[in-house]
Amino acid sequence: MALLFECLSSLFVGNPLLIPALQGKPGAMIHRQNSVVAAVNIGTFTDVEAYKDHVDTLIDCLKALPPAEGVQEVMVPGEPEDKVHEERLRNGIPLPEGTARNLRTVAQRFGVKLPTGM
């Protein structure tokens, strides 16, 4: 899968990321990023409802697999983010103490009331 993304997002735009890293070139391990965005009309290739059913079945099959040791459940893309979203809706977004302290200082300086818990 990584090779597919390297071809689509890096080689396709003439900015290889893996080649310099694999060749051990200086600076190759510095973070650089490419991306690709594609719009695909699924209906061109298959029946859309059948596709949805297949995706649902694939997810069900993946989630039925035994989780790795030390892991509570098998999750598919989007589930970890949904869990974090729900947790943050309940408990707020955690901030490092230094960030919270800076926000309190600036709020006090400008007379801005911070939310409860800050």
Mean pLDDT: 93
Instruction: Tell me the Rg in angstroms.
Output: 23 Å
Distance between the termini: 43 Å
Q: Structural class from helices and strands?
A: mainly alpha
N-to-C series of helices and strands: HHHHH
- Summarize the amount of helix as a percent range: 40-55%
Count the DSSP helices: 5
Q: Give me the oligomer status.
A: single chain
Shape: extended
Stretches where pLDDT falls below 50 for ≥5 residues?
none
Largest sheet: none
Which percent range describes the beta-strand content? under 5%
Number of DSSP-assigned strands: 0
Short structural description:
The chain is mainly α and 118 residues long. It is built from 5 helices and no strands.
Which characteristics define this entry?
118 residues; mainly alpha; 5 helices; 47% helix; extended
What does this structure look like?
The chain starts with a helix and ends in an 8-residue tail after the last helix. Among the domains are: 1-38, no CATH class; 46-88, no CATH class. Helices cover 47% and strands 0% of the residues. The chain has five helices and no strands.
Task: Please outline the helices and strands.
Blueprint: H1 2-9, H2 18-22, H3 48-63, H4 79-91, H5 97-110
